[in-house]
Design goal:
7-stranded mixed beta sheet; 257 residues; alpha/beta; 7 strands; elongated
């Protein structure tokens, strides 16, 4: 493929991260398509491209990346008009290949295992990508494009990718919610995140270095019934946090058996 001409569908966080990274890697962003004209125009300007007003993709655009919400992939892919050799991919972790219409001959998935946030630049060179394609030649072309932004490429089918996505929900989304709950408790005592920053870093670093099972500490890992009972009493202000504390503590205890 060499340097590709890439069309980006979407103008949100994932679309921005991929468009900027591919542009910086030397690929041409042949156009941006989005229902949000303002964010599409801003993204197109950032990657020296233009906003396409229809879903008619020029034939010389070899790769179309659909970085859109999961529930939009089905309908938007059916609006697309692409050349017979154009590859169309989505970026979803939990959506299968069957979402694409039969009218598109070459399809695939480029799933970046990362959380993207507005205002934070993503270093895709460290990110692991999970790819899948309708045929071997398409997969080679997708991998070649992805390899220009990251060396970390894994081949996995839709079922496997959905399990990777599930793991990511626990590791990222649920872990972040635990930080939120902890900070809500601390906030009631007038503390902010600063005091917990070293603990957060050490927790993550230990889990990566030693593995989460070995790194696990705390009252549940010791089956410290007395301390856990005190904590439950202190959580009387929130039924949800109390239930969450008990469910997670019981899960930790069972994991030690």
């Amino acid at each position: 493929m060499g340097k590709a001409v890439i069309t980006i569908i979407g103008s949100g966080r994932v679309a921005e991260a991929l468009a900027v990274s591919f542009h910086e890697a030397g690929h041409e962003i042949g156009g941006v398509i989005s229902r949000n004209r303002d964010t599409a125009s801003a993204l197109a300007a950032r990657v020296s491209s233009n906003v396409l007003k229809t879903y008619q993709v020029p034939d010389d655009n070899g790769l179309v990346i659909m970085a859109v919400p999961d529930d939009s992939i089905y309908s938007l892919s059916r609006k697309l008009h692409v050349g017979p050799s154009t590859i169309v991919v989505h970026t979803s972790g939990s959506t299968g290949m069957e979402v694409f219409p039969e009218s598109i001959s070459h399809t695939g998935v480029i799933y970046p295992l990362q959380s993207f946030t507005n205002g934070r630049k993503a270093n895709l060179g460290e990110v692991h990508f999970f790819t899948e394609a309708s045929d071997a030649g398409t997969l080679r072309t997708i991998d070649l494009a992805v390899s220009s932004v990251s060396p970390n490429i894994h081949h996995i089918d839709s079922i496997g990718r959905s399990k990777v996505h599930l793991a990511a929900v626990f590791i990222s989304n649920f872990a972040n919610h635990m930080l939120y709950c902890g900070m809500e408790i601390a906030r009631r005592e007038g503390l902010d995140m600063t005091a917990f920053a070293p603990l957060i870093r050490e927790t993550v670093e230990k889990a990566l270095d030693m593995g989460p099972a070995t790194a696990q500490t705390g009252p549940a890992s010791r089956n410290d019934i007395s301390t856990m009972a005190k904590h439950m009493d202190m959580l009387s202000f929130s039924d949800d946090m109390g239930k969450l504390y008990k469910i997670v503590s019981d899960s930790i205890i069972r994991s030690k058996i």
